[in-house]
Specification:
Chain lengths: 372, 111
């Protein structure tokens, strides 16, 4: 009679078992993917830590159960302990939390709205042209990756982005330097991307475009409070935001959310623009308030931010946009163009007052390395 | 226009010995933090369960000598830390950092 020494479980047995588990999103097994962070074997007791790429992984529990089942089937295993953790990894080729510094851009202005279809891009291109007409150097970044409309509105839909080494050369029209997803993809083709790709494209457009010296760089954001807004507010030195809304409650409700998002990431609100405020009949000259009245002004009052002005619903504005020449450039003496110019003046004044009135030291991005 | 100038933000970050971090703010306040306490106060989704707010960071898993390797501002509202224990996802808003301040003045104020 002799005692057989209990056979210890081997690392490779456990890894072989875990190698049978596939991550359904990445379509590779979790060992190859490097998700097994630690493995401890004490006699018949196995302790494993599996690190996922997001704490919100929908199959976390399923992977854990699979791991427990497979390890417990290995001969001589008496006890299994699987711990699930997560470490969100930065997209490849990109330093975590990288910041975009635009030292040659004096003012970076985000134009946003909560709701879509309020004429945000129309307002942005006309403001940009009105600012440029004052002699300022102006750039325009179309941050709407899925529905870029700047190329059409600025008459540049056939233009394609050119690269000079690592630099992207902006497209120029009506005195404005522009970058848009519309210059990077074939016209009419949809961009079908998830959030991280949007983040990558935006940071690249912002940081690699050869903007040169600019007095104002306007960012035309897509509607909502999602990936594009977060990327811009976390990585770029935004000077202030303009919120565009139409006067009725269904738009104001979303505009409030936009406002509150910028407030929570500490981006100053330069003011609110009310668009499509009234329609002047071409026959009888009477004004009809299609989307009600003065909602934008009320919102500005409620949020204690400047009201930048009210713009009418004017078919000439839409026509001008569709033909590729913003109304401010096409009919600089029209009533609506005058409203845009007044608005541009207000924005410019607010920004200069702001830079003069800054109390104490101005905000500057900081970084520090710990000395151990 | 009050809005445009009221926000607090750091103007200087400094290391105080091996275990403490100092932050000087634009309003002149001098904050002081023990770095391990700061690591344990991380609010990211890996440390606090996203939907339930349940703490999931095991204090014992954080080394006693944990310290930031690098820190940098995120936009104009937060600081992000690269910690020596490999943790990189924590974003500390300026507001939260002011609440976590351990300077004698803030400590007496919060009692």
């Amino acid at each position: 009679m002799f005692f057989r020494k209990s056979i210890a479980v081997k690392n490779e047995d456990v890894l072989r078992a875990l190698g049978q588990i596939n991550d359904p999103d990445l379509n590779k097994d979790i060992v190859t993917l490097g998700f097994v962070k630690s493995l401890e074997i004490l006699g018949g007791e196995v302790k494993v830590t599996i690190e996922l790429t997001t704490p919100a992984c929908p199959v976390k529990e399923q992977l854990k159960t699979q791991a427990e089942d497979l390890i417990s089937k290995i001969p001589n295993v008496k006890k299994v302990e699987v711990t699930m953790t997560a470490q969100v990894r930065p997209p490849q080729g990109q330093a975590p939390g990288n910041r975009i510094l635009l030292p040659h851009v004096k003012n970076l202005i985000a134009v946003a709205s909560g709701k879509g279809g309020v004429g945000k891009s129309t307002v942005t291109v006309n403001l940009a042209v009105a600012l440029a007409q004052t002699g300022a150097k102006v750039g325009l970044l179309d941050a709407d990756i899925y529905g870029p409309s700047i190329p059409l509105m600025m008459g540049t839909r056939k233009e394609r982005v050119l690269q000079d080494g690592a630099k992207l050369l902006p497209i120029e029209s009506h005195g404005i330097k522009m970058m848009s997803m519309g210059y990077a993809v074939e016209e009419g083709k949809p961009v079908i991307w998830r959030g991280p790709m949007v983040h990558g494209a935006l940071t690249q457009f912002l940081s690699q475009t050869d903007w040169g010296e600019l007095d104002y760089l306007l960012i035309d954001l897509p509607p909502g409070t999602g990936d594009a807004q977060l990327t811009i507010s976390q990585t770029a030195p935004v000077t202030g935001a303009i919120i565009v809304t139409t006067p009725q409650e269904v738009s104001l409700i979303d505009a409030r959310k936009g406002l509150s998002m910028f407030q929570s990431v500490k981006i100053p609100i330069l003011g609110i623009v009310e668009n499509m405020a009234g329609f002047i009949c071409g026959h009888c000259q009477e004004t009809t308030h299609i989307f009600l009245q003065s909602g934008g002004e009320k919102l500005a009052h409620e949020a204690q931010v400047p009201f930048l002005g009210s713009l009418p619903l004017d078919p000439k504005v839409a026509q001008a946009g569709d033909t590729g020449t913003p109304v401010v450039a096409l009919n600089p003496d029209s009533e609506v163009a005058k409203l845009y110019k007044a608005m541009a003046g207000k924005v410019a004044a607010l920004l200069s007052v702001r830079s003069m009135n800054q109390q104490g030291e101005a905000f500057k991005p900081l970084e520090m390395t710990w000395q151990s | 226009m009050a809005e445009l100038i009221s926000a607090v933000y750091p103007v200087q970050l400094r290391q105080v010995g091996g275990k403490n971090l100092g932050i000087v703010w634009n309003d002149g306040h001098n904050s002081f933090y023990n770095v391990r306490k700061l690591r344990l106060a991380c609010k990211c989704a890996g440390c606090i369960e996203e939907w339930t707010n349940r703490p999931i960071l095991d204090e014992k898993s954080v080394p006693q000598e944990v310290h930031p390797k690098k820190m940098e501002t995120m936009g104009r509202y937060a600081l992000r830390f690269d910690w020596s224990d490999g943790h990189t996802t924590g974003i500390y808003t300026f507001e939260n950092l002011r609440k976590l301040c351990e300077c004698p003045q803030c400590r007496t104020a919060s009692v």
